[in-house]
Q: What sequence folds into this?
């Protein structure tokens, strides 16, 4: 339990309930402001109760609703006998709010989807190495389907203090060891040929971008140029790397979709990404030889704005699109809340 965020949630729930009760009670007492303005007092009480319901729903109900997002993708030079079904989960974040029981439920739901392949896009723990023990619940999933994973910034305990970045490689090793004991292959800047349904593609698993462990050139060097290149990486900021232009499809997580969203507005908190805010979740297409370049004026390193710049070497033949998919993940970090953004398992159908 995160005492800081849970204390805020508890205070908000108690405060809204007590204030609503006060407004409703004082409407019936002569001489009070509430009695003289009964309609206004009732309106305020209703809004307070709606606030109570929203906070309670977002903190304790919606984070336990597991949804399925289905996405179909047409990969270049790829003609499987039937679409290859890939189950993608990310931002598992076991430890603070969710433990083995949640992962068993996720594993059961993934099994019901009968995928050909399972991918895990990093951030397996919240921030403590002892949390990795809960990952053993994924062993039932790995026993039934080929399962590949990469690590994320939480697995490295990436932190920035006084302008300096720090990482903990021992924590990352602990997480990786627990995954491997569960039968999951942890990919560290490497490539493997995936042959399913009479067709093959290259899966490239990259180490964490924020921890400065990504080495895309090493992974790409292991491919033979035959078949599409699918990159599994935790942070979608990898698309800023010039090497990302070689990928046909990039699969990532990290953003949580903002966790707290509003209809027609999108994510409310800032996203843990240097990409524009429109890159919050879902499927995006970008010209392969166009780059996202930070504007030099009026922006910061933490939240730059971007231009799309076309590479002068691009030609009609090599300017095909690359696709980026960002899943909003299955768990939470920071506050336990999700709103208009329930946990999701992504089912990607590749053809």
A:
């Amino acid at each position: 339990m995160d005492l800081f965020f849970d204390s805020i949630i508890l205070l908000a729930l108690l405060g809204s309930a007590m204030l609503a009760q006060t407004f409703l009670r004082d409407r019936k007492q002569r001489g009070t402001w509430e009695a003289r303005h009964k309609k206004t007092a009732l309106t305020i009480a209703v809004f307070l109760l709606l606030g109570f319901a929203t906070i309670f729903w977002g903190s304790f109900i919606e984070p336990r609703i597991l949804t399925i997002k289905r996405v179909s993708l047409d990969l270049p030079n790829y003609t499987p006998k039937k679409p290859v079904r890939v189950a993608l989960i990310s931002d598992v974040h076991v430890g603070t709010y969710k433990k083995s029981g949640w992962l068993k439920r996720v594993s059961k739901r993934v099994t019901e989807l009968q995928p050909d392949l399972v991918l895990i896009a990093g951030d397996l723990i919240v921030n403590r190495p002892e949390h990795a023990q809960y990952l053993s619940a994924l062993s039932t999933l790995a026993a039934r389907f080929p399962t590949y994973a990469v690590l994320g910034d939480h697995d490295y305990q990436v932190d920035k203090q006084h302008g300096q970045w720090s990482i903990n490689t021992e924590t990352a090793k602990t997480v990786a060891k627990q995954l491997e004991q569960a039968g999951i292959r942890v990919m560290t800047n490497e490539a493997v040929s995936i042959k399913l349904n009479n067709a093959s593609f290259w899966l490239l698993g990259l180490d964490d971008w924020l921890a400065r462990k990504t080495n895309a050139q090493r992974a790409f060097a292991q491919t033979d140029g035959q078949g599409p290149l699918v990159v599994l990486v935790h942070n979608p900021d990898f698309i800023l790397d010039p090497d990302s232009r070689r990928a046909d499809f990039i699969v990532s997580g990290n953003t949580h979709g903002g966790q707290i969203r509003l209809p027609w507005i999108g994510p409310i908190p800032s996203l843990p990404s240097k990409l524009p805010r429109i890159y919050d979740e879902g499927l995006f297409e970008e010209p392969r030889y166009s780059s996202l370049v930070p504007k030099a004026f009026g922006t910061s390193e933490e939240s730059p704005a971007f231009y799309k710049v076309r590479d002068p070497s691009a030609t009609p033949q090599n300017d095909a699109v690359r696709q980026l998919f960002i899943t909003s993940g299955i768990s939470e970090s920071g506050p336990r809340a999700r709103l208009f953004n329930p946990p999701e398992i992504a089912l990607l159908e590749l053809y």
